[in-house]
Amino acid sequence: MADVSFNLNQYSGLIETIYDLSQSKSVWYKPLQALRDCFAANYVTLILKPTFEEEEEELGLMIAIGSGISAEKKVQYLPYRYHITPFNNQQPDTVFTVDDLMDEEAWEQSTYRKYWCANVGVYHVMSVDIATRDGGIVKLRITRPESEPNFSNEEKVLCQMLVSHLKRALDIHQQLDRSNSLGTMYNEAISRLSIATVQIDESGRILEQNVFANELLTLEDGLKVQGGKLTAHYPNDNRELKQLIQNSFKMVRESDRPILPEAMSIARPSGEVNLGVVVEVIPSPAWENSIGQGKAVVYIRDSVAKSQASSHVAKKIFGLTTAETALTLELANGLSLEEAAERLNIRRNTARAHLRSIFSKTGVRRQTELVRILLNSVAPLACNDADVGI
């Protein structure tokens, strides 16, 4: 039997390990192993992600640790067939054992025990179906072999005490996962608009940057990385950029109201149109003393960069043919009709015919209007054609 006479330090350590679960997608092993040690179990499993597809088996994902899993793998991910278990439809968030559902003879004769549990050395089972905030169920199973004693009432009480913490940890895990996914989607949307983003600290040191920022800074045409910091090419611009960053942080700390982002123009040695730069400080909690530790996002727009609009989406939303879409995108990238015709290897008269058809379908009369409606449409926000194999 497991020793359930925990002291406060041991209990605190177990709770801390459980909350590690909420912070990463890859830390299943530590909390499950802590539960295994706590209850002297041979296996501990979590059963996730049920799917309910018509005319197919109901499958879940089982995350398992235990004596039959190699030390190299530590955690094993297996399909779980819901229809064969007798533990379905139990009261959520309530710990139960086999004894609560059936007598010993019924358990020993059950198909589930004989053809599933017996093959992996599982006899005693303590379970709880944890209801998550989004309405899902995560099934926790803690098991022992027949040679070990059954789970005691004290162990069931301890497991019940842990349920609320497991529940919160799983809810936090889901919320963080969704938040991270949403943040990734926003970052990708910004990238599709050809906006370079650089995350910096108060000293201007670069913490993160997206792919467009990496390309732009590599060119060193107006902005570059020097000593790990975001730096303007010309000294006057660089002084203004430093002052802009300092003022942005200062205003956010000293004001209790939202502050409009600060902006400036950066000259380019190539002679191309200046880069537009906006600095926006990432808000910190009001109680946090983050002087010197704040972060900001620098948005950089290259006005002469090519549009990343998806031809697949542009074709759909404007009802254009493939040839008409290709011409529209070349015009959006700043080419004249003659230059676009040459780029697409078509006759000028053909390009003019395409343009007349495009005007008719989009309801515009000038190329400038056509470019405006394309760049203001959702086409630049859609996945790049290369990403979807178009």
UniProtKB/TrEMBL annotation:
Signal is among the record's keywords: no
Keyword Oxidoreductase applies: no
Sequence ranges assigned to domain HTH luxR-type in this UniProt record: 317-374
Keywords: Plasmid
Pfam families named in the record: GerE
Segments forming a coiled coil: none
Protein name: Helix-turn-helix transcriptional regulator
Provenance organism: Vibrio alfacsensis
